[in-house]
Amino acid sequence: MILSCNYSSKIIEPIQSRTAIFRFSQLKKEHVEEMVKRIEKNENLHVTKDAIEALYYISEGDLRKVINTLQGAAFISKKIDEEIVYKIAGKATPEELKQLLSIAYEGKFTEAKKIAEKLMFQYGLSGEDIIVQLYKELFNMKISDEEKAFIAEKIAEYNFRLVEGANEKIQIDALLAQIPLAKKKANK
Q1: Cβ of 105: how many Cβ atoms within 10 Å?
Q2: Which pTM was predicted?
Q3: CATH architecture of 29-89
């Protein structure tokens, strides 16, 4: 029997004690691209370059996620582009998250709130999905390490609140309100 999972610590101890655990590292981008090209050829698909980038972004090197996403996308169209990949994966594009972060960072709360609502209601993303993606994009921002650390701490705090069952909309709005405070904390 093979049990496949990403976090072996989430498997109960009686099962863990009777198994051999094999750990696999993330695949490099070129290996994922090579596999996508092979699938593209064998399944008579057309996968655009931006779709391959999106597949790697959402999968973080996990080929199972790539294959599952490709399979879902192939049900929609034989031509697979970035838009289809993000739609199937239930993720926002990195650009949308960068925009949300930068607008919130500039203190434009109402504008940031509208973007977050779009992600939640039009794309169907959960508050936790948004927070995880914000954390991923945070480190691409061109701000000081102190500001990144402050925002990372706030993201962690609001993620914990969501995991504990707090209202998603309220917590996302509160997080967006906290982000511009990073500038003030760093300048002290």
Answers
A1: 20
A2: 0.75
A3: Orthogonal Bundle (1.10)
